[in-house]
Amino acid sequence: MTGFGPAVDAALEACVVPGFSRIGLAIRSRLLPEYTADGHPGLDGRTILITGATSGIGYAAAVALARKGAAVHFLARDRGRAERARRGIAAASGSTSISYGLADLEDLDAVRAFARQFCATHDRLDVLIHNAGAVHPEFRTDTAGTELTIAGQVIAPFLLTRMLMPALVAAAPSRVIAVSSGGMYTQRLDLSTLQLPAARYRGVTAYARAKRAQVALSREWARRLAGTGVAFHAMHPGWVDTPGVAAALPGFRQVMRPLLLSPEQGADTISWLATAPQMSLGSGRFWHDRRARPEYPLPWTRETDPGTARKLWDHLAAVTATDSPEDGAGGAGQRGCRSVIPLPGQG
Ligand SMILES: NC(=O)c1ccc[n+]([C@@H]2O[C@H](COP(=O)([O-])OP(=O)(O)OC[C@H]3O[C@@H](n4cnc5c(N)ncnc54)[C@H](OP(=O)(O)O)[C@@H]3O)[C@@H](O)[C@H]2O)c1
To answer: Which atom of ligand 1 is the closest one to the Cα of 106?
Structure first.
């Protein structure tokens, strides 16, 4: 190991611009053993499910994971974009094991149907990657009155994790990876303000709060599922030049473009977390550039109530409770989700 590597890494972590950009990755990939000694085995025989693989980081992660030999199934909301991505991922990776299902994550009934369909066709799931995400400039709600950032980026990933848990347990050691954002560093998890009211809505704030919640939930899943062989990792990719950034932050992209990571670079820690030996990763940690990072570099963003993540998890368990005998229990034709696995620590 290069002696001064960790010190340089820590200095980069303290400075946002170099740390989140191409500069940080270029330096870390030359100095840190996580990069220089990466000899992880391939993913032959493994099944990976990733959301949001039609574009940007998710597309690049799907290509990287398919190249390592995994069968990649992805969730997409538009059939035309999904089919284009399937063909592109297959061509770029040389894999014939690329498939998809359709659901908009902001429609929880569609997410349930997607999970049932997955379970009907798969016995096991080795890696679940919650990658899909976006900034919504306007305040909009679903039919239940939930603001769409929260519905699609907090509730839907929880519901998917919950419904696919039997398939994850069947494949243990398995893992769930949540793609968060460094934007969450500015926000505190507070259940009373997680959903912004329409009058005070700001898309980037709603997004950052949802990303903070994803990380807290990943830690909470890890705590509750300790000992099951299912591990949970949250990460942030840094600043990546993707269609999502171009749409949400055009001014930022224009100024920062020379320093932004490519989608392939942004996907690197995701595919590394999917392949690194489970023992070396633990569970419930937050990662950036292949290293575990503190969740609260700004101390004032730490939860005032240490039980907040537990309460959020309990709330989501209640709002995603099965409303059909098929969900989680597995009706006829269910494979990977055929057994009822009660959520741990409930009630
Ligand atoms: N780029 C960055 O600098 C950056 C930084 C921090 C975190 N992230 C996170 O990285 C992840 C990927 O972002 P990206 O930059 O690669 O953005 P992107 O290019 O816009 O890709 C986003 C993907 O998510 C899908 N998606 C969005 N909303 C969805 C919904 N409601 N239902 C189903 N699919 C949905 C999109 O599908 P469509 O093709 O149908 O739109 C697309 O495949 C996101 O979670 C983002 O928050 C990115």
So the answer is: 31
Q: Would you give the DSSP letter of residue 196?
A: P
In whole angstroms, give the CA distance from residue 312 to residue 126.
26
pLDDT, one tens digit per residue, over 171-196 is: 999 999 999 999 999 999 999 999 99
Q: 137 alpha carbon to ligand 1 midpoint, in Å?
A: 14
Which atom of ligand 1 is nearest to 152's Cα?
31
Give me the pLDDT at residue 327, please. 47
Domain map (residue ranges) of the chain: 1-36, 54-319
**Of 70, 50, 167, whose CA–CA distance to 119 is shortest?**
167
- Tell me, which fold does domain 54-319 have in CATH? Rossmann fold (3.40.50)
pTM over 0.70? The answer is yes
Active-site residue list: 207
Long-range Cβ contact pairs of 255-260 (< 8 A, separation 24 or more): 256/21, 259/17, 259/21, 259/22, 259/23, 260/21, 260/22
Separation of CA 151 and ligand 1 centre (Å): 15
φ, ψ dihedrals at 267, nearest 5°: -85, -10
Ligand 1 pocket residues where CB is under 6 Å: 51-52, 54-58, 77-78, 81, 104-106, 131-134, 152, 179, 181, 236-237, 239-240, 242-245
